[in-house]
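Course assignment 3, question 2. Fill in each field.
Student: A.L.
Task: Predict the tertiary structure for the chain below.
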Amino acid sequence: MEERRKIFAISGSTRQNSTNSNLLKAIADLYKNKIELNIFESLADLPQFNPDKTDDEIKAVDHFRKQINDADGVIICTPEYAHGVPGALKNAVDWCVSTNEFSHKPTALITASTDGRFGHEALLETLRTIEAANVNNLQLLIQFARTKINIENIITDEITLVAIKKLVNDLVDTIEKTTDNK
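Answer field:
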């Protein structure tokens, strides 16, 4: 039996039952035999980024960083807010800039929103800057996402389902190649 790869998933939405969280749950269900998807549910609990904080003050950040380090890859699934990256998600990523958790870590970006183009490009640029592995090829923009994923965590749009499957398969392939090169 193939080894299940560990994927750390971050929803850029802090809302209960958000479309982005539902999409991550749908991916977890679709790939339950191939990947172990750990969805981070404490995004709103991370303190505001401040490099002067002491270790005792940033236990939640240490936990967040450790989960990225322990994962074989990362999936970020986010909405777009006012043509930008949601503040809580940007804050989480900022905590990892100087500590390099994303550097060479296979990372997939899904922007699932009404439009999403501007936030997608902004976060994609940030992920490139912090050297997330293969992020240019591991990205997907799902516009009008609420019409494509239902509250039962099922991807109802066939084109979106095919695109999600390709993205996750490409992420697993990137992980395999990264692991083989170590």
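Instructor remarks: The beta strands are 5-11, 35-40, 73-78, 107-113, 139-143. The chain has a mean pLDDT of 93.
Grade: pending
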